[in-house]
Write a structure and sequence with these properties.
The chain has three helices and ten strands. It is α+β, with helices and mostly antiparallel strands.
């Protein structure tokens, strides 16, 4: 019984203080390959262009440079734009970090759209779906580091959008449920 209690205390401590955050870095300068890109600038045109590539995914989170966040998961993610000075001394971001704030997690299939309507291409779509063949597999909670998008003065990140599935429970909830079941099994076994 002491063993079960100690395990429960350790897990509760991890859930309270969190695990160290990891990052998935997506490069805009050739190191990360998008599944799609285009020159459409309106959101309706982009949605039409990517519709066949994101089957089963819906827009869950969108963050515009300048501070507005929207979507079902607007309170679950936060985007910080950075690297504001490009080669033309513009004050536009070429980098961004998307951080999970909890409790909701984007589920598979997962996609990321990075956009700037003043550049060519105007947007990139990345597949972040988990799988052994995908180098960009993202678990939904690790930071997404977007680096060097349109860095050579051609443009900047105007907004980012996460597409995915909504029916994914919070990992902490699943861990607590599992621990509860283990505790019940341990008590029944002892009796």
């Amino acid at each position: 019984m002491k063993k079960y209690l100690m395990t429960l205390l350790v897990v509760c401590g991890i859930l309270t203080f969190g695990l160290p955050a990891h990052s998935l870095t997506i490069y805009g300068t050739g190191a990360s390959t998008p599944i799609l890109s285009g020159n459409e600038t309106s959101q309706d045109e982009i949605d039409s262009a990517i519709e066949s590539s994101i089957i089963g995914a819906i827009e869950l989170y969108k963050s515009d440079f300048g501070g507005s966040e929207s979507g079902l998961f607007a309170s679950s993610y936060e985007t910080v734009f950075s690297n504001f000075e490009d080669s033309n001394n513009n004050e536009d971001p070429s980098d961004a970090t998307i951080t999970w704030m909890g409790p909701n997690i984007v589920g598979d299939p997962k996609y990321l759209l990075v956009k700037d309507g003043n550049a060519k291409p105007a947007w990139y779509l990345f597949n972040l779906t988990s799988g052994s063949n995908n180098a960009l597999a993202w678990n939904g909670t690790d930071n997404l580091e977007l680096v060097n998008f349109w860095f050579d003065g051609r443009g900047s990140i105007s907004h980012v959008t996460l597409y995915g599935a909504t029916a994914v429970p919070e990992p902490a909830t699943l861990i607590l449920l599992g621990l509860g079941l283990l505790g019940i099994a341990g008590i029944r076994r002892k009796k």
